[in-house]
Each structure stands twice: as C-alpha cells, then as structure tokens.
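User: Structure with zinc ion, tokens only please.
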Amino acid sequence: MQLTLQSPYDMHLHLRDTPMLEAVAKYTARYFSGALVMPNLNPPVDCLDLALAYKERILKACGDSTFTPLMSLYLTEKLDRAQLKMAKEAGIQFIKLYPKGATTGSESGVSAILAPKVLEVLEVAQDLGVILSIHGESNGFVMEREAEFHSIFAELATTFPRLKIIFEHLSDHRSIALVEKYDNLFATLTLHHITLSLDDVIGGALNPHCFCKPILKTPKDRDALLQVALSAHSKFSFGSDSAPHLQANKECAKGAAGIFSAPLLLPALAEIFDAHHRLENLESFVAHNAQRIYHLPKTDKIVRLTKKSFKVADSIGGDSIRSVVPLFAGRTFSWDYEC
Ligand code: NCD
Ligand code: ZN
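Assistant:
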C-alpha cells in the first residue's frame, strides 16, 4: 500500500542554529516543500538582516534546493513600521508574537499585547498583508493558559479584520470554536497534541521528552483536536512545532520545553490517518490547507510513503551535537518513507 503527498508544508518549525541546525534540518528539508521557521533564537531574529542571514544558514544546512524556509520576524518592542515594511519588501511574510515568558526563547516577547505600540505594528502588518502567528497562552494556571488567551484573539481578530492571524499549536478543545468564529483566524495542529495527553508526560514515570508548551492536555482535548485533523478542517494546517533540545537539557532539573518530532512526522501521521480510515484527508491536512491559507505554491515535490515498518531512532546526533531524543523514540510505525 502506498501514499503520495504533493508539496507538504510544516507551518511551525524550530530549526535552531549551528550546530543543531546542521543536525536537524535534513529531516524537514527532504520531505517538505517549505516550513515556517520560528525566530526564537538567542538573540531573537527580530530584524530583516538577522532573518536574511539566518535564512542563508538554513539553506546551507539543508542542502536541498526543493525546500523553502519561510522566515518570520520575532515581534519585540523594537519592531517598528519602517523595519516591518522593509522586511515585507524583502519577502518576509510572517511575524511571530510570543507573550513574554510564555515558552522557550520568549524572554524578548511582548508583555502588554494590547498596548498602543504593538497595535500600531499590527495595523502595519494588516496593511502590508503580513501574517501574524501567535503563541496564545496567558501566564495563569498551566491547564487554562490557552483558554485564558481567547479574549486577546477575539480582540485582535475584530480590531484587525484584514489581518490573517494564526493561533499556533492548538492544545485545548475550547479553542476550536474560537478559530471557527472569526473569518481571519486560523490555526496549526501538531502531531503531539493530536495524539498524546498529559498522561504521557506525568501519568507514569516523568517523560521530559513529551514536555512542551502549550502543555499536553486531557484525552478530551486530544481527541477533539485529532478529529479536526482527520477531517482536514479547512482552517487548520499542520505545524509540527518540532523543537529540538539536547537530551542533557531535557533530562535535568530545569528541563526545557519542546518536543523534537521532525524525524517521524509523515510516517506517524500516515499511521494515524490510516488507523482512522482517513488516509484520503492527509494530503489536505499537510499540504492543501497550508497552500490555501498562506498562499503558498504547490511545488512538484512528491513525497512517497509506503506501508512498511519504520523504527524511530533512540536518539540522533553526531560529533558536534550530542544526543537529541525524538518523540516516540524506539517505537515502530507501520508506515515509512519510500526511498
Ligand atoms: C518551543 C521551543 O523549544 O523553542 N518549545 C515548545 O515547548 N513548544 C517554543 C514554542 O513554540 O513554544
Ligand atoms: Zn514552537
């Protein structure tokens, strides 16, 4: 049994920088036409020059001319009208808003999202047709953070009706109705939020490799999000939020948030869609929806998957990067890439 996917996109990806970049880029570059690359480096990618230089490093690390890194600018207090205009003219279509302190690499984020200075930048983004991607979490109780952020999405979606806003990595079933309510609000779904719950993080022995922000939630949330993905709901695209950290930085007292899923994304998705008899919807979920929502080209990159067993590595790494443990390390899936 075989499956072909034409021109898939990963609309939320962390590639980090040298040397991690060299170790992880190939997993995405080989199988996706493009990916929206997150700007939460240290220092953040918050101006055109940094974004263009980072793009060059990514292209070099990928060594695959069929892959396009879609660059985003980190929305810091520094970003102003002139910088954003210049970035758009140079082809940058995305800005990423992190509430300050919400997640890994969000120290330079925005502390008052509805402050006049931020709204001014968003107005410019609306006029330029730049897409706003948001990590939507408050600083409240961890299981309520996403729901507590809904009022900000509602306010932004109504204040800027022509601004395309992406609610990143949905984790709470209550967010689905919010995305459906506003014409200019869209969302991404990760592999981990549609397949796992908080039990996988703390239900047995603590599993730091399933620890991410937003935190995995209840089985009810997981199942509702899975149904959205399986139906290839037209407002939701696939965004892995693959976020590699060194094993040593996950398995320690200050365990970093982020799940590294890049090496297994499409085989794992094929297995889930197959198990639910929805294989026919997988291409819409990973390719068509992103092409339509973000106006991305359908390239002639064809990814072939076949029904044969594929074992996820226990860890990846080499000389310069010691170990990074992927999601589902050591597990065998029944779908694999056809080489
Ligand atoms: C991401 C990271 O490690 O950069 N971590 C995560 O838990 N998802 C940041 C993010 O997207 O929140
Ligand atoms: Zn992320």
